[in-house]
Amino acid sequence: MATSQELRDVLAGGDTLTIVCHNNPDPDCLASALALGRIAATVGIDERRILYSGNISHQQNRAFVNLLDIDLRPFEPEAVVDRPEGSLLAFVDHAVPESNNEVPEGTPVDIVVDHHPVDGIEARFVDHRVEVGATATILVEHLQNLGVELDATLATALLFAIRRETLGFLRGTTSAEYQAASTLHDRADRDLLRKLSTPSVSGVTVDAIADAIRNRVVRGAVLITHVGRTIERDALPQAADYLATLEGVETAIVFGIVDDAIHVSARSTDARVHIGEVLDAAFADVGSAGGHREMAGGEIPLGILAEYSADDETLVDIVEQVVTARLLAGLNISENGDSVES
């Protein structure tokens, strides 16, 4: 496993640091970026920037950025391509160029810190731990090992990120999350934590969740549903979290059309199902998908189907049929809900 001193040594060799978040960054990614930037500051890197692509549409993510006053900038290709010597590039909470980010394939990366299962990571410093519940947990360890001060803002960001990523320490949690939380607890701003945990919800998000509830189809312990078209991509994981709590449901998958792509969010408590592998098997040939045993997501470009108008119900019907069929096949379930013999 990579050491904190190795991370410090790589940073010490740089003059500037560009941290690229994954598409549509969440609190785990954003808090990890803040933490890495703070470590970089201790070795004398004054020029630091955090870039993101996609949208920050989830109400908790917007509150996270606004309340913590995080300086985010839209992704700039020129910031990562043909970088001058001494300009470092880092990924947090993702790991491979052109996979859930807009960094061109083949771009050299200096630092990767991630907890998602993924292959093909190449960087000068790699801390990749799929066994932990959050990337923020890894950064807390490095902050401690390097003696970096944890002020209230950083501690609050990291603690909220760990809580959110693990659904309140109920999903994918390890002893490392509890140890990190213990370190952060007394330093965090309790009032700010409460505000982050209870942001206002937009009407569009409520509508999307209502559509997911109305369109649900249950096959045994598996629930599959869609929201049609929506501008609130982050309504999908919220709907998946809610629907996974329905009685008798062990796996909930929600998909919808956002701009020119199909987005998928899935949750599972079924010990027989690795939902990340299911999504990867279902959509690897047409898009990018995967994740953990209990939580996963994916994005599939619409391709030629994007030519349909935004209000064309035919497109929604086609997407529903195709995506549902692929999911049922990936889950080894027939249309009537029976398991298919392998």
Automatic annotation (TrEMBL):
Residue stretches making up the DHHA1 domain: 222-309
InterPro entries referenced in this protein's UniProt entry, alphabetically: DDH_dom (IPR001667), DHH_sf (IPR038763), DHHA1_dom (IPR003156), Oligoribo/pAp-PDE_c-di-AMP_PDE (IPR051319)
Pfam families assigned: DHH, DHHA1
Domain DDH, first and last residues per copy: 18-162
Gene3D superfamilies membership: 3.10.310.30, inorganic pyrophosphatase (n-terminal core)
Gene Ontology molecular function: nucleic acid binding
Superkingdom field: Archaea
PANTHER family tied to this protein: BIFUNCTIONAL OLIGORIBONUCLEASE AND PAP PHOSPHATASE NRNA (PTHR47618)
Name of the protein in question: Bifunctional oligoribonuclease/PAP phosphatase NrnA
Organism (species): Halapricum salinum
Top-level taxonomy: Archaea, Methanobacteriati, Methanobacteriota, Stenosarchaea group, Halobacteria
